[in-house]
# Entry
Amino acid sequence: MMKVSDVMSKPPLTVSPSTSARIAAQLMRNRRVRHLPVVDGDGRVLGMITNRDLEHAAFLPALSGYLAWDRRRLKAPRVSDLMTWSAVTVSPDAPLTQAGILMFERRIGSLVVVEKDRLVGILTGRDLLRALGRIRAERRAT
# Structure
């Protein structure tokens, strides 16, 4: 049985809550990823920022009259302003099927892989699809 650790991306690219949203967007674009775990200085997962969070940030200027934010935050938001302050986690030893079901049920595109309260990887929908493709290819070959 295939486990999360067999297909997860490691080490994952991460950002801190104080990273500028612009830098996070550049990292995602340059590395061609859609999800970045947000970690503290000790490597503990605080949450997740996604390309969708960053896309929604484009609406900040239009919403400025309705938000009680400092103008500097509106012009230069940080990851902490846009991120989801929780992340769905999974163990590296979890069966891949269990992780896939969790992603489907929660309607999320990635899982943060944590071991002993420390980030060890990220499992994305792309990782799952690649693994399923390998499994199918192996079954056809036999």
